[in-house]
Amino acid sequence: METVARWFRVALPMNGWQLESDAKAGDGTVSLYAQKGSKPLWITLKPNVGAPGTSYTMIGAVVDSTKTDSAR
After folding, report:
1. In principle, which of 20, 29, 51, 67 could form an S-S bond with 25, CB 3.0–4.6 Å?
2. What is the pTM for the complete model shown?
3. What is the mean pLDDT of the chain?
């Protein structure tokens, strides 16, 4: 799994992303947070259970700073 995390640590900056956070939990889960301009990206890497490999989740969002939400 460390190989996959290392790949993201290199690939993100090479593609214009600023790595803002890189944390490893006790169970081996690696959480990365990166930004590219106003675009956020969260990546979670977990070791597979019962088989070799790594599972990952990527969550991104497009932030529209011109839109306002209001409760009425």
Report:
1. 29
2. 0.80
3. 90
